[in-house]
UniProtKB/TrEMBL annotation:
Residues 411-449 form the YHS domain. The keyword Metal-binding does not apply. Keywords: Monooxygenase, Oxidoreductase. It comes from the Bacteria. SUPFAM superfamilies: Ferritin-like (SSF47240). Transmembrane segments: none annotated. It holds the Pfam family YHS. The lineage of its organism: Bacteria, Pseudomonadati, Pseudomonadota, Gammaproteobacteria, Oceanospirillales. One of its GO terms (molecular function) is monooxygenase activity. This is Aromatic/alkene/methane monooxygenase hydroxylase/oxygenase subunit alpha. The keyword Oxidoreductase applies.
Amino acid sequence: MSTQKMNLTERYRALTRDLDWDYSYADRKEAFPYEDFEGIKITDWSKWEDPFRLTMDAYWKYQAEKEKKLYAIFDAFAQNNAHLNVADVRYVNAIKLFLTGVTPLEYQAYQGYAHVGRQFGGAGARVACQMQCIDELRHVQTQIHAMSHYNKFFDGFQDWSHMHDRVWYLSVPKSFFEDARTAGPFEFLVAISFSFEYVLTNLLFVPFMSGAAHNGDMATCTFGFSAQSDEARHMTLGLEIVKFLLEQHEDNVPIVQKWIDKWFWRGTRLLSLVAMMMDYMLPNKVMSWKEAWEVYFEEAGGALFKDLARYGIKMPEFVKTTEKEKEHVSHQAWWIFYNYNHAAAFHTWIPSDEELDWLSAKYPDTFDKYYRPRWELARKLEAEGKRFYTAGLPQLCQTCQIPMAFTEMSDPEQICYRLSEYEGEKYHFCSDGCQHVFDQEPEKFVQAWLPVHQIFQGNCGGPSVEEILTDYYNITLGQDNLDLKGSPDEERWKKWKKVS
């Protein structure tokens, strides 16, 4: 063996090429049974490249350095009671939604990459999946540690994993990843590595982590940007994955296009929760959801799809719909939670006059016409002691699982309602995009676990909604939810800050 020290490129090649082997006593197709059934054709796995050419020893070195700095900030945050430095107690509710909605997705991503990495015949793809699944597990751990400090002082953090599996609005992100994990290995990569982590990830992490910084939460901000350095690597790899599939065989093009169409739409529906956080839950706002969408998708994504056009890839279907939805989706989502807040695990509130003016300025063509009157009515009713909660359980979209409360984008005063039939049963959808996704794979989506359906079928305890919330969701009624005004969180905050 040569004693000459290898450079990074040589070490990466040794890891991803020279350690692979031919199978002399087993059939290769039996060793990788899921590699063919999606219809993807791979002619040469050696063409797979990781732009970072990361090896395991380099990976451990980089991650260890990041962990030292990250946990030093966590310690300083806790020792200095830095929860008192956040802008407003309202901000903590955005953290509750992030912990229950996003952190468990990191664990699903860890499990997903650990699974699909085993299914690929190419050593380079297996190594890339191995490193990314470790990244995702690290993200779970750092997010929990960053937010654990808040659990000592605020309600609603106590059972985030249990809630993620059961609470109605958390089935939106949960079903997204379960759909990806039950797809084939190549669709999983297009769904998570490309559509979510390359096309849409900046809309989740960058505005939200900037929001954490603007609101004085240095622990969340620091873990976010620590994770974002991994996400930058994932993004680069996600683009390389799609190019690899498209360059392997021309028959792969329509399959990849179909997956991009599906996962782009599913991703935009998932991000409606982020849109709501940006426009309504951050006391100190960074940018509006509309601005974020224009910067991170319309500008950056537009350039991406121009580049992919040489392979025959087009802009995702329903992208025209998203151009209209950026004006409406955050307002409609927050209104849903204001109406159903007695069944959620965080608090809601009516925007202040200053915030209404900010929204009017950011959405000059739509907010004053469609949404300001709603909030002014809600404020009037609250002043008269008539604050209302919608008592019934909402009908959920069969695909995205969001309550059927989004409107026609051509007529924001009309609820959007679509219907498909499959094997004699009727299924309902919030949009053309969700109906299209269902119609492509009805045999899969008829099996969706819809929380409201499960409640009506008696599978979630009961019989009353109150018993389901306390015994099945583990929500402490009146403490974890309802209006922020008068809540225990607000009372403690006022006491700490010595305000009336």
